[in-house]
Specification:
Number of strands: 0
Largest sheet: none
CATH architecture: Up-down Bundle
Oligomer: single chain
CATH superfamily: 23S rRNA-intervening sequence
Distance between the termini: 41 Å
Structural class: mainly alpha
CATH class: Mainly Alpha
Strand content: under 5%
Number of domains: 1
Order of helices and strands: HHHH
Number of helices: 4
Shape: elongated
């Protein structure tokens, strides 16, 4: 996942360089959110707890969604640059994040339940 989000950030940087000529605000937004996905994913790898990991991955997922929206919107405009591969990469990461978040929530809930049951046995 770290490699995929790094590649996404690289593609976003290239795309933003073309987009800035058409819409500076959009380019800035796509650049910020698109590169943030990878930084939060990388930060999650050093999480101090499962809860911390989940928090960072949730933020990364939100940033991915925030990147996806202006890409979809921009592709409706004929004068905006296009990058079908960037859109494909973004769309492909969304279900991966959903899966990671679901699995992590399940594991975290199991940990919390285990702690509760241990407290009850004392």
């Amino acid at each position: 996942m770290v490699e995929e989000t790094f590649e996404l950030a690289s593609r976003v940087m290239d795309f933003a360089e073309r987009l800035i000529k058409v819409n500076e605000v959009f380019a800035d937004q796509v650049l910020r959110s698109g590169t943030s996905v990878g930084s939060h994913t990388r930060e999650a790898q050093s999480a101090e707890s499962l809860s911390d990991f989940l928090h960072n991955m949730k933020i990364a997922h939100k940033e991915l969604e925030e990147t996806d929206y202006p890409l979809d919107l921009g592709h409706l405009k004929d004068h905006y640059p296009r990058d079908p591969e960037l859109v494909r990469c973004t769309k492909a990461l969304i279900p991966l994040f959903h899966s990671i978040l679901t699995t992590t929530r399940t594991r975290l809930n199991a940990q919390l339940e285990e702690r509760r049951s241990k407290r009850g046995k004392r």
